[in-house]
Specification:
The chain has 246 residues and is α+β, with helices and mostly antiparallel strands. It has a 7-stranded mixed sheet, with helices on both faces. The longest helix has 20 residues. The chain starts with 23 loop residues before the first strand and ends with a strand.
Length: 246
Amino acid sequence: MSRGFQQDSLLATPLNTSFVGSRVLMYEEVESTNDRALHLGGEGTVIIADRQTSGRGRHGRSWDSQAGLGLWFSVAFETPIDGLAFAAPLAVRDAVKPICACTVKWPNDVLAGGRKICGILVESRNNRTALGIGINVRHKPEDFPPELKDKATSIECLAGRDVDRGALLRDVLTELDRRIMVLRQGGLEAVRREWVEACAIMGRRVRCGDHVGVVKEITPEGGLVLETESGVRQLLLGEIVEMNGA
Ligand code: BTN
């Protein structure tokens, strides 16, 4: 059964941020919070919905966004910010840290216990950017569609206790705000390095689509540089699988 926002202390106390959450708009239902953010804009505006009817993920996939279970939200930016795709997963990881340990996975997933708990989708239209974050919070194993059962989990599944979505949202927005300030002050390299460390992917042998190789670098644009048998390849999209015996 759906547990509405009213049962979580969703931003019951004001945010202590400089920029993210300049305005916070909450909806029971939207098609996609990214669409709303791209449509409404406003620097730092946060759009959050209890349910998305057309939540989307990377590669044109749909994003399961049932009511009462997750944190589905987007932050609007009126000017491009390099490094958002590094900052966002780190912010989620750090916000979730007191509850359970997470790692980040290229290009910008957050995993816990080897399964995905968060996906991130950065989209731009007419110089406006939407940073969309979907976090699985309250799901029980049976809440996931069959195709995700082995790949996804939720924070409550791992914590074994109730988790307040409002408190978690506040922590994610606070961490995000902090890192965006760093990016805006020229700290892309520092945030990239932090991401690379969190990902622990350097020197690993991975498969990404048809390419198999050793990870040599993550570029400032988030590209994965692989040394393959047929030369060095730079990939911007895809899903990686670690190869045994690397
Ligand atoms: C992925 O891992 O494929 C990215 C998933 C991104 C999902 C979030 S939920 C909030 C925002 N609105 C959307 O429609 N998508 C993102």
